[in-house]
Amino acid sequence: MNEAKKIIRALIAKPGLDGHDRGAKVLALGLRDEGMEVIYTGRRQTPESIVQAAIQEDVDVIGLSCLSGAHDYLFPRVTELLKERGIRHMLVIGGGIIPEEDIPSLKQKGIREIFGPGSRIDDIANFIRQNVKR
Amino acid sequence: MEENIVELIENMRAGGDRYLARLITLIENDSPSSSQIMEILPTYLGRAYRIGITGPPGAGKSTLIDKLTTVFRSKGLSVGIIAVDPSSFISGGAVLGDRIRMQQHYLDTDVFIRSMATRGSTGGLSKSVSTVVKLLDAFGKDIVMVETVGVGQADVEIVKIVDTVITVLTPDAGDSMQFMKAGLVEIAGIIVVNKADRDNASWVVAEINAVLSASLRKSKWQVSVLRTQAINGVGIDELYEEISKRRIKDAQ
To answer: Is B15 on the interface with A (CB under 8 A)?
Structure first.
């Protein structure tokens, strides 16, 4: 596929009821500085609204951020919905406050990597670049 | 991964959001299929009424689009929105921050929102926007709204691809000298003074009207000047009526 200049499009989304989104915004700016086009959904999204946005924006990667502990339900619900809608190519990653012991189960359910507090933006960007399809 | 364009377009017209989104991406990336897509599109065009929304950053363009969408939807009209934001000249990336103002419509399957970056183009749009407008039209949207980057005077590309341009200003937009300068007010079909609860709103409306009445420019339509407070929904129905008048007249 000979596309001229492939720019990665990312959706940063906040499912659930988190009270603030500073981390998500820092990430959005950071990925912008890494050359990506970043759409930020705003807070208080449902898995349904996130998947709808991801499809319309035809993003390559979805970054889910959750600070309030509902990641075990919300993150896999996103990957489930993507599957139901026949979307197989989007990379899904997560971050926020995710306890270590929850990570294996999330990965098993399709969240490819978790980037918690202290993660470097360039590590996240490189991971995305190495793992996006098409 | 070869893609069958004819099939993609058929699937899109059958109502598939994801196919529409995919076609937009192919156009945006200037892929080899672009010319084939552009050849097929004209067959399906002509239904959508296209509105451009321009004006300086922070004037309330996205919020206005959000409110207008609610009104269009209440009349049973389907809506496509293209929201353009600037690409960074340093990194080539972009934060596309217009969609966030339209959250109430995220789950409405008759509202399609696509955020686009300028990717180096000047003039407030990206070069693929005109084709993406056609894609939304071919998809069956009744209304297509395009929000420009909002740098103001340079935002003139929009005129060529829409039926009506709405220029959104705020009460601190300046005085008559400001409005006499080329670009901002010239291209407008409808001028909206948003955040009209602020001081100076009446004065700004008067200054704009003074410049408009002094202008000898002949056009099909008298330029209308309206006041809104988009965030509170004030003035939106009047704006809708104004758009409606033009849409009906243009269809005749």
So the answer is: no
